[in-house]
Amino acid sequence: MFKYFMEGGLVYMSVLTILLVALFFAAWKAPRWVKEIGLFALVFGLVSPLFPLYGALSTLQQVAIDIGEGVNGLFDLISPGVFFGIKVILIPVIYGMCIYLVSLVIRIIQKPRL
Question: Is 94 in contact with 5 (CB distance < 8 Å)?
């Protein structure tokens, strides 16, 4: 589990973990905040891979231009290992979605009975 935490990015996974702890605290003390914290975790999890992905694609573009291949020959330079590295980028997305699912379960449990 710690391996996935480190692969997902220390900053992103730490923020999501803090949101998970805040979610449980809100369920106990401030139930109205459960929905907002869950949605924030979902959005943060979805946005978090965009910055590393942009940096990686910019680097690949610069390498293609430096070699002289141009942007059109970019995909000839990319090995399949680079595409499989995208699965590491998706770890915070999955974690954020799991936190959102936990918030939904908490909201269902806390709903008043009819």
Answer: no
The tokens 């910055």 sit on which residue?
Answer: 51
* Type of residue numbered 88: V
**pLDDT single digits (tens) 52-106:** 878 777 777 777 666 665 555 555 656 666 666 777 888 899 999 999 999 999 9
Measured distance CA(99)–CA(66) in Å, rounded: 42
Cα–Cα nearest to 38, from 54, 21, 19, 60 = 19
CA distance 105 to 28: 14
Task: Count Cβ atoms below 10 Å from residue 102 Cβ, excluding itself.
Answer: 18
Tokens of 86: 């995208």
Q: What is the pLDDT of residues 78-90, one digit of tens each?
A: 666 666 677 788 8
Q: Which of 103, 100, 89 is nearest to 55 (CA)?
A: 89
For 85, list phi and psi in degrees, rounded to 5: -70, -15
Q: Which residue has the tokens 């710690």?
A: 2
pTM as predicted: 0.78
